[in-house]
Amino acid sequence: MVYGRKTYELMVPFWPDMARAGTAPTKALQDFARAFDATPKLVFSRSLSSLEDRNSKLAKAGLQDEMLKLKQEEGGDILVGGVDLPSQLIKLNLVDEFHFVIHPVIAGEGRRLLDNTELQEQLQLMLAETKVFKSGTIGLRYTKDNR
Q1: DSSP, res 40
Q2: pLDDT at 65 over 90
Q3: Residue 58: left if φ>0, alpha if ψ -120 to 50, beta else—which one?
Q4: Can you tell me the distance from the alpha carbon of 90 to that of 119, in angstroms, rounded to the nearest whole number?
Q5: Mean local confidence (pLDDT), 80-98
Q6: Cβ atoms 136, 96 nearer than 8 A
Q7: Roughly what angle, to the nearest 10 degrees, separates helices 27-38 and 14-21?
Q8: What is the rounded CA–CA span in Å between residue 27 and residue 89?
Q9: Ordered structural domains, the chain, with CATH
């Protein structure tokens, strides 16, 4: 998983602490906490000099160089969290698939995903998969439409 500092600080230590303590209110949240804790994380930050989480490391190079290096490695998908990094990766044309998870909650305020995304032209997407969860959450996976 790849995060910017702000998103990382929202996620850590909350999820790792919950995973270790076993204090999640539901089995699904406990499973997520364990998975999050076990997943390697790469963090982009100009202000942090170290990270306390055992599965996290600071990015040493710039965003484009680090992401191209990650894409060369074996191990599957690269998940990106937050608002700023996805927009930057889209601008650099480094996103192969888009996964959106829609929760049945209306926040009413806050930063919006893709608000500051600058594109040279429209990016056409094609729906590749949908999944409806018991919670009412919906997962959508889109790929680039290269027509």
Answers
A1: -
A2: yes
A3: beta
A4: 8
A5: 88
A6: no
A7: 120
A8: 33
A9: 2-144 (3.40.430.10)
